[in-house]
Sequence to fold (294 residues):
Amino acid sequence: LEKFKGIFPAFYACYDELGEISEERTKDLCQHLFEKKVHGLYVGGSSGECIYQTLEERKATLKYVSDNLKGKLTLIAHVGAPSTRDSITLAKYAAELGYDALSAIPPIYFKLPESSIYKYWTDIMEAAELPFIIYNIPQTTGYSLSINLFKKLLENPKVIGVKNSSMPVLDIERFKAEGGENFIVFNGPDEQYVSGRLIGADSGIGGTYGAMPELFLLAEEYVSTGNFNKARSIQRDINDIIIALCSLNGSMYSVIKEVLKLKGVNIGSVREPLEPVTGEDLTKIKGIKEMIDN
Ligand code: NAY
Fold:
């Protein structure tokens, strides 16, 4: 499980100027994050705009990332999709491509009983010979993973971890307490990386890591060496930056993509209904990049 420890940026959707998935730009982002020495990637999740992409587009991104980084970084494929059928297709494909693990949100849109959520995740796990990481993100899915369902899922040996994006760090503590030493808890809220790690998270997956990998790697170094004052101070810097990333009109991801452009990594913009950054707000991106660089 060592390979699942560390900083895992949630990979961004890489589009060309027409808004189509770009192989070339996916490669550029892979290269950029590899050079930053992150430990792995979470591909095709919320930050990958999976919810706005076709199955074919999602498969393309999974393929391009694995073409570039298979064997070099730990790769987790997010395969959650509205139907079990599509999720299974993605799971099988990720296994073929050599991904290290699968992950999925619970079913979305209809409010389903826990029995259906259990079945959904179990069906995905049965589709491929890969470890599975549960994704708990109540703020976007409307479902908050219960300890009961969590315990039931733990009976399946394929379940090796949970990516917990709920805001109470207590959830991280409880999942770690139930999961035990050989179970990986990923911190979800980037704003609480340090607290998540201290209360029991082993690793982190985050939507803003890709914009400032150096800062999360440093936070991790301070946490793992017990340098808590410095860890707290980096977390504060990170949070000032996240607030700035969320302060403009346009989605946080479009702001991040503009920051990446200034860093020399052009991965295009976002897909609607996510809105791009325009006009006045574009002039503020330089200031955000400077916050990250200093
Ligand atoms: C993914 O699946 O791509 C993610 O890991 C995204 C997780 C993010 N949570 C939400 C609700 O979007 O990383 C967080 C988030 O971007 C960060 O905490 C900033 O708010």
